[in-house]
Amino acid sequence: MWSPYHTPARAKPTGRGISPALLLALLIAVVPCVAAGQEVTADTDAAPFADVSHGLRAHQLVEGWVQAGKVLGKRPDPILVDRVLGVRITLRMQGHLLGFGDAWRDDLDALLDAGVEPGPTDLSPLIQNAAFAAFAASRRKLQDAAQDAMLMARLRPELRGAGEVPTLDEIANAVTVDVQIAHHPETITLAPPEPREALLGRFAPGYHGLIARWRGNEAPAIEPANPPEADALPIDQVVVWPATALSHNLLPESQARRLAARLPGLKFHEVDRLGRPGGPMLVRFDVVHVARPRPGLRANLLIRGGALLGKADLVDARLDDMADQMASHLRLYYVGRGLVRGTYHPSTDRYEPEFSTLSEAMLGTFALTHHLNTQDRVGQFEPQAGNIAERCNDLLQRAAGDLDAKADPLVLTPDAAGLMVLTRLNLRGQRADPLSRRFLAALLEGVDDEGLVYAEAGNPRPATRAATAIVALALGRHALATDDGDTLALSSRVLAQLWQNQPLSDGNALPWLAMCVESVEPALVDAGLLDEGTADQRRALLSDAVDRMEAFQVIEDPTLGPADVIGGFVFPTNPPAPPGAPPNPKWSTAPLLSFLATTMRSEGPDAHDPFGRIITAQYAARFLAQLMFDAPSCYYVRAREVALGGVRPALYDNRLSITPTAMSLIAVNELRTTLKARTEAQQKQRAAAADQDATTEVLAEPDASP
Question: Does the bond joining 353 to the residue before it have cis omega, within 30 degrees of 0?
Answer without folding.
Answer: yes
